[in-house]
């Protein structure tokens, strides 16, 4: 905690004290959660894939139902996820009846969740609680990557299974230079053992020239992620953290609370859908490669 000089106001001193107390409470909660998780020595073998989907979106209303070469995007995501060898089951979690009806139409199981879910992680957690069967690992498969490769899903599951000290796993790929300063393309840095250090909407690492270094292997974060199911239950109870709020990246809440996150690097041509214009790009890509 910073030292407050003798000429500082009492209100300033009080604010630092309150900040310290809040930080201490957050640390105690995180330590308690880690102790709770640490009591389990089981092998995390039972795995479910959950595709969170919502209709409301600032940039693209009704995105999960947008058609890509004749099929709704949510269906294409579900079909790709079903090909993953490590998933015992795949469900869609949504708060929208139109999305639910669409998913039922192509044979997917749907778990209805509340509108109050603030992000995909919370939606996955609520869906997990409503499932009759118990699972050790939950894979959050974002519906706006309709060409996600099943091998990537399998990769992050196996990475989490092989890292008992981690509660979270995700994937990165090479960042294209033209995406370096795009805030919608989240960047990641990892340590020498493959654990995440930081995520940012800005370019990381950032050099003194302020320009992209063509020799540096920048990493782009892929939205797919998996969690230890016990940690997923704890996650909503952890208070939002300063870095998470500033960057608007929920992965940072995990790191700020001292949890370990395993990261694998994959070769993947990203085809995420952020805006309606991205649909045309994906359809052109699929036609060029004769993908149905």
From TrEMBL:
GO terms of molecular function: 3-deoxy-manno-octulosonate cytidylyltransferase activity
Cell compartment(s), UniProt: Membrane
EC class: transferase
Catalytic activity from the UniProt record: 3-deoxy-alpha-D-manno-oct-2-ulosonate + CTP = CMP-3-deoxy-beta-D-manno-octulosonate + diphosphate
Assigned EC number: 2.7.7.38
Transmembrane portions of the chain: 16-37
Cellular component, GO annotation: cytosol; membrane
Keyword Zinc-finger: no
Pfam families named in the record: CTP_transf_3
InterPro entries reported for this sequence: Cytidylyl_trans (IPR003329), KdsB (IPR004528), Nucleotide-diphossugar_trans (IPR029044)
Keywords: Membrane, Nucleotidyltransferase, Transferase, Transmembrane, Transmembrane helix
This protein's pathway: Nucleotide-sugar biosynthesis; CMP-3-deoxy-D-manno-octulosonate biosynthesis; CMP-3-deoxy-D-manno-octulosonate from 3-deoxy-D-manno-octulosonate and CTP: step 1/1
Any GO BP annotation: carbohydrate derivative biosynthetic process
Entry's family note: Belongs to the KdsB family.
HAMAP family for this protein: KdsB
Name of the protein described by the UniProt record: 3-deoxy-manno-octulosonate cytidylyltransferase
């Amino acid at each position: 905690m910073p030292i407050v000089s003798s000429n500082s106001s009492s209100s300033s001193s009080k604010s630092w004290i309150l900040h310290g107390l809040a930080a201490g409470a957050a640390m105690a909660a995180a330590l308690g959660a880690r102790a709770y998780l640490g009591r389990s020595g089981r092998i995390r073998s039972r795995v479910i894939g959950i595709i969170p989907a919502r209709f409301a979106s600032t940039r693209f209303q009704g995105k999960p139902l947008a058609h890509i070469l004749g099929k709704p995007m949510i269906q294409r995501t579900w079909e790709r996820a079903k090909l993953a060898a490590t998933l015992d089951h795949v469900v869609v979690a949504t708060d929208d009846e139109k999305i639910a009806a669409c998913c039922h139409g192509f044979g997917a199981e749907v778990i209805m969740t509340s509108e109050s879910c603030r992000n995909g992680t919370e939606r996955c957690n609520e869906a997990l609680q409503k499932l009759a069967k118990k699972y050790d690992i939950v894979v959050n498969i974002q519906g706006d990557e309709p060409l996600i490769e099943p091998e990537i899903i399998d990769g992050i599951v196996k990475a989490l299974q092989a890292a008992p000290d981690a509660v979270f796993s995700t994937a990165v790929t090479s960042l294209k230079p033209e995406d370096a300063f795009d805030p919608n393309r989240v960047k990641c840095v990892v340590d020498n053992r493959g654990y995440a250090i930081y995520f940012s909407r800005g370019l990381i690492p950032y050099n003194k020239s302020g320009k992209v270094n063509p020799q540096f292997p920048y990493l782009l974060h892929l939205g797919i992620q998996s969690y230890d199911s016990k940690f997923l239950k704890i996650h909503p109870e952890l208070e939002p953290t300063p870095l998470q709020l500033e960057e608007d990246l929920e992965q940072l809440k995990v790191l700020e609370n001292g949890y370990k996150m395993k990261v694998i690097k994959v070769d993947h041509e990203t085809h995420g859908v952020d805006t309606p214009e991205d649909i045309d790009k994906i359809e052109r890509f699929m036609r060029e490669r004769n993908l149905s």
